[in-house]
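REVIEWER CHECKLIST
Item 1: Sequence provided? yes
Item 2: Single chain? yes
Item 3: Sequence as submitted:
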Amino acid sequence: MLKQISDFFSNHLLLAVDDSCADAEHCLRLATAALMIEMTRADYDIKSIEMEATIGMLQKHFSITPEETDELVDLAELEADKATTYHEFTSLMNQHYNQEQKIQVIELLWEVAYADGEIEKYEDFLVRKIAELLYVPHKEFIAAKHRVTGL
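Item 4: Structure as written out by the authors:
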C-alpha cells in the first residue's frame, strides 16, 4: 500500500512538476486543496459550512470555474485519503512557492478552520503543523490567524 502511494506521487506529482509549468501549477493547486480538505476533517466533524468555504476559496484563489473547482475538490479528497504525511504536499509547495504564497496557504487554512466561527484545538494544531512544514515564521502564522479572525 505504501509503495502504491509512493509510486503515485512519483509518477503523477513529481513527474508532472518536471514536465511543464502548467502541470506544476495543477499539482500545486491539488496539494493546496488537499490540505484544505484535511483542515475540514481536522476536528473530526466535517461541517458543510467548512466545505462550502473551501470550495468558494479554491474557486476565488485559483480563479477557476465551479466545474473545475468540483473536479479539484474530488481529486483533493482522493489525495488526502491516500496521503500518509502532509510532507507529500508541503514539499512540493516548498519547491515552488515563495514565502508570500506559503503564507497565503496558511491564511486559506485559517479561513477553513474559522468558517464555522470558531477554531478547534485540532484545527489550530494542523495549521501550526503545516506552517512549520512550510517554514512559515511563527510571527506570520499568528498574523495570518489575526487577519482571518479579526482578533
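Item 5: Key structural point noted by reviewer: The chain has one domain: 2-149.
Item 6: Recommendation: ____
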